[in-house]
Amino acid sequence: MFKKSVVGTGLLLVSLVGMLLPAMAQEAAKPTVYTYVSEWSVPRAQWGEMEKNADAERPLLDKLVADGTITGYGSYSYLIHTEGEPTHGTWFSASSEGNLLKTLEAIYAQPQLVTNSAQAASKHWDHLFQSTIYNGRPGKGGYLTISRWQLKPGQMRSYNQLTKATLNPVLDKLVADGTITAYGTDTDDYHTGPMGVIWEYIIAPDAASLDKANKAIEDTLNSTPAVGDAFRAMFEIEGHRDNIARLRFMGGK
């Protein structure tokens, strides 16, 4: 019975993608956006110091937004804490890897931003992501949700096609009416882990807006069960993680 269900879902996925390809062929691909993310597991006693340090970076990041080096940035702290996992994070985005490196060098040129005691006492992770699935508008804060999925081998193209055709139109409307500030799907530009990992994110200005966005996504998948089945067929269940963070601030054009 299990094997029969898997085969049926695979054929369904092929059928869905085949129907969606003509409509998607008319869409121009978005320029690639590159994002540098830094995360730390900060001892609780030093959370305040960590947040002050992130605040101290803002004048430099605002300057880099103004001159076009980066397109946006933000700072967040996780609300769901797991031992040994990140508690705080920052990001900045640009239209090229070169501009990300230029930004890093500008930060490194101010030692007080990278040599504080909170960072020195913390476990640290860096990621360099790329994305062609995204949309957003200016915002200040709110909530950031992140879902990590492990795609089965060979499923990245089908995932991108199905996402752009079924979920992006819903999310674009939510951005347009102000329910959400941004959304996107990131993949590793430089791989430090398994191939085929994706990170889906949504930024909402408040809790009520996040509830509205989640309901819109659930309604879309429930109204067309075949789409939900197709997505589930692409994922390795064991590779899934969710988290939610308080977005302390964000900036950009």
Number of helices: 7
Structural class: alpha+beta
Radius of gyration: 19 Å
* Helix-strand pattern: HEHEEHHEEHEEHHE
Quick one: biggest sheet? 8 strands, antiparallel, barrel
Termini, distance in Å? 52 Å
Shape label: globular
CATH architecture group name: 2-Layer Sandwich
Uncertain runs with pLDDT below 50, 5 residues or more?
1-26
Beta content: 25-35%
Helix content: 40-55%
CATH class: Alpha Beta
Mean pLDDT metric = 89
**How many strand elements?**
8
What number of domains? 1
* CATH fold naming: Alpha-Beta Plaits
Spatial sequence of strands, sheet with the most strands:
1-3-2-8-5-7-6-4
Give the gist of this structure.
The protein has helices at residues 2-25, 47-66, 97-108, 117-120, 156-176, 207-223, 225-234; strands spanning 33-41, 72-78, 88-94, 123-136, 142-151, 182-188, 197-204, 235-252. It has 253 residues and is α+β, with helices and mostly antiparallel strands.
